[in-house]
Amino acid sequence: MALPTQAPTPETPEPLQVARLPRRLGALLYDGILLFALLLLATALLIIPYDLLAARPYPQGEWLYRTLFQAYLLAVIICFLVYFWTHGGQTLGMSAWRLRLVRDDGGRLSARDALRRLAWAAVSLAPLGLGLWWCLFDREHLAWHDRCSRTRLVVVPRGG
Asked: CB-based burial of residue 87 (10 Å sphere; 0-12 exposed, 13-18 middle, 19+ buried)?
């Protein structure tokens, strides 16, 4: 005879389910589109004033300008992700797919946690996304960057 299951109470909340790969990819696609638009805006904010105020044409071939511009765009991406991960644990794409980023202990991420996760995500995604695909084989459905940064992407219950 099966024992009746007890409904979760505020004292014993239901454990959050770790996000599976399709949901992760959906949120990644949404956030990729949003980041593309944000990078277009960041580029326009830099190039339009330069074109209006500069006495010489846009310096396309200068390696220093190109390097600084790439660093600027990378900073935009980092600031976007760190801000949203530390303020509510969700980007817009994660919110649409009902995902939240938490530490292993269930707490909110600090800026240091978010930067650690971002660094490990870059390493995890570099070899053709192998670190992300790993969650298909992991017993707890965690990607490399989840394990290394001691964070996890969890599914937010409906109405939660």
From this structure: exposed
Would you mind telling me the total number of residues written for the chain in this entry? 160
In contact, 21 and 136? CB cutoff 8 Å = yes
At 5 the pLDDT is 43
User: pLDDT tens for residues 111-152?
Assistant: 999 999 999 999 999 989 999 999 999 999 999 999 999 999
The residue to which tokens 């339009």 are assigned: 48
Q: Which amino acid is residue 7, in one-letter code?
A: A
Q: What angle do CA 76, 78, 81 make, to 5 degrees?
A: 105
Question: 10 Å Cβ neighbour count for 118?
Answer: 16
Average pLDDT, the chain: 88
DSSP β-ladder status, 151-155 and 99-103: antiparallel
Pair of tokens at residue 24: 């992760």
- Domain locations along the chain: 21-155
